[in-house]
Design goal:
By secondary structure, this protein is mainly β. The chain has one domain. Helices cover 0% and strands 23% of the residues. It is built from no helices and four strands. It has strands spanning 12-16, 21-24, 48-51, 56-60. The strands form two sheets. A two-stranded antiparallel sheet has the order 1-4. It has a two-stranded antiparallel ribbon with strand order 2-3. It is globular and about 35 Å long. The two termini are 22 Å apart.
């Protein structure tokens, strides 16, 4: 299994719609950050599904080291 690659050392603000599923890129290789574009193929890392409970902005992890995937927990501040 490959290690995740930090896409950036800050979270991604992303608007979501209630009831919709989003697939967060856990590998860091996606060209459509913070969402998956299938670039994880062959890495052993899979995207994490996030179902939006409410419409609004959420903060997806950009460093790929969060303990609360797929949302940012501030871990990027220690990297």
């Amino acid at each position: 299994m490959a290690d995740p690659i930090p896409a950036q050392k800050a979270p991604y603000g992303h608007k979501v719609e209630a009831g919709r599923n989003y697939f967060w890129c856990a590998c860091g290789r996606s060209k459509k950050q913070p969402l998956c574009d299938g670039s994880h193929s062959g890495t052993g890392i899979t995207p994490v599904m996030y179902k939006a409970a409410d419409s609004g902005e959420v903060w997806f992890c950009g460093c790929k080291a969060t303990g609360t995937a797929p949302l940012c927990d501030g871990t990027h501040e220690t990297l």
